[in-house]
Amino acid sequence: MLKPRQTVPALSLTTVGGGRWTLAERRPQNFTLIVFYRGLHCPVCRAYLSELNRLHGEFTARGVDVFVASSDDADRAQKAMTDWGLSNLTAGHGLEIEEARRWGLYVSASRGKTSIGIDEPALFSEPGVFLIRPDGTLYFGTVQTMPFARPHFNEMLQAIDFVLKNDYPARGEA
Fold first, then answer.
1. Farthest-apart Cα atoms in the chain, separation
2. pLDDT for the residue numbered 115
3. b vs e for 104-114, b when ≥16 Cβ sit within 10 Å of the residue's Cβ?
4. Which domains are assigned to the chain?
5. pTM given for the model
6. Mean of pLDDT over the chain
């Protein structure tokens, strides 16, 4: 289990459009926000990431570097970013299942086509949201076993404002 104030696992993924995103190379002013999503097959992910895309500038204004990632292959990840209109987000793909497990993410097996008619991959990670300090330690993390009931980005922005104003420490380390 990942614990606040401890170093998170390494993460380096190929990004949609080319290039590589590596957590250890990030130098955010305050945090790196990593949002792991289920993939192209998930309509809940589409709505969730659309909200993050809309609020991207608010996170950036608070010194937060935003990254989203899934276990989708390059084609599926590209299709999600294009079809969902996520022009503000940097997206990684090809998250290996064992890597997802190191982050504490739950893993699901395919149940065929989803409600929107897209096949689920054989295995894929369930959602997770993490705020990482510039030193690579976990500040906040949450994982879900289902696509539902994720943290609201507006509430996260309010929490980040509080944290920065009050120098509030990471909690849950004991």
1. 47
2. 84
3. bbeebeeeeeb
4. 28-164 (3.40.30.10)
5. 0.96
6. 96
